[in-house]
Amino acid sequence: MTKTDAILLVEDDSEIGDLISRYLQTHQIDVALVADGAAMDAALARREFDLVILDLNLPGENGLSICRRLRADRNLPIVIVTAQGEDVDRILGLEMGADDYLVKPFNPRELLARIRSVLRRARAAFAGRDETSSRYYLFEGWRVDIMAHQVTTPAGTKVALTSAEFDLLYALCERPNRVLTRDQLIDLTHGPTAGPFQRSIDVLISRLRQKMESDPKNPRYIQTIRSEGYLFTPQVVRA
C-alpha cells in the first residue's frame, strides 16, 4: 500500500470509526470518516477515493440503498462492514454491488487484507492487463475493453460493472467454452484471501446474467453445468 491510497469510511459509530481510521492510517492509508450518506456524497464531491468502506446500519439512508446508488454512478470499489451477519444480508450487499463483506466484530488485520485484495482486483483492470498484446475481447457484438475497464453491448451501450464483476467476466473471456468450477473462478478473481464467502461466485454470476443476458433465467452466454461449474459459451476474439 502507498500513501496515495485514499479510503472513505462511512460509519456512524464514532468510536468504531476512529479505531478503524487509526489502524488503517498506521498502514499508510489516507482515511476520511463520515457518518451518513449525505456526508459521503459531500466528501465524494470534494475529492476522489480509491475505495469506500460502508456500514449498513446508518441513520437516514441505509447502507444497502447507498451501495446501490454508488454502484449505479461509479465503479468505486465497496467493502461492506456491518454487525448484520445473516447470509441474507451478505447476499443482499453483494447483489447491490459490494465487492466484499465483513461482519463485526472483526480483526482489523482482516479488514486490511480485504481492502488490499479488493484494491488489487480493481487495479488489475488498468495495471498489468494493459501490457497484454490484446486490448479487447469481442463476442457476438459485445466488446470488453481491458484497459478502460468497460463493457459495451452490441447496441453500443456501456454496461456498468463492479471490479469483481469485471474480473469474473475477464476470467470467462480468457477461458471460453471451458467448464470452470467455483474454486477455479475464486482463484482467478479473489485469490487466496477469498475468505469463507465462496458462494459469492454464484451471486456474481447472477449479477452478470442480469446485466448481459436477455433472459437471465435461461442464460445464453453463461451456462450452469450441473455439479461442475459454469461455461462461457460465446466464441471470443481478441483484438
Describe it:
The modification 4-aspartylphosphate is found at residue 55. Residues 128-132 and 192-197 have low confidence and may be disordered. The chain starts with 5 loop residues before the first strand and ends with a strand. The strands form three sheets. Strands 2-1-3-4-5 form a five-stranded parallel β-sheet, with helices on both faces. Strands 9-8-7-6-13 form a five-stranded antiparallel β-sheet, covered by helices on one side. It has a three-stranded antiparallel β-sheet with strand order 10-12-11. The protein is α/β, with parallel strands linked by helices. The longest helix is centred in the middle third of the chain and has 17 residues, at 108-124. It has helices at residues 14-25, 37-46, 63-73, 87-95, 108-124, 163-174, 182-189, 200-212, and strands spanning 6-10, 30-34, 51-55, 78-82, 100-103, 136-139, 142-145, 150-152, 158-159, 179-180, 222-225, 229-232, 237-238. The chain is globular and about 50 Å long. It has two domains: 6-124, Response regulator (Rossmann fold), CATH 3.40.50.2300; 132-238, Winged helix-like DNA-binding domain superfamily/Winged helix DNA-binding domain (Arc Repressor Mutant, subunit A). It is built from eight helices and 13 strands.
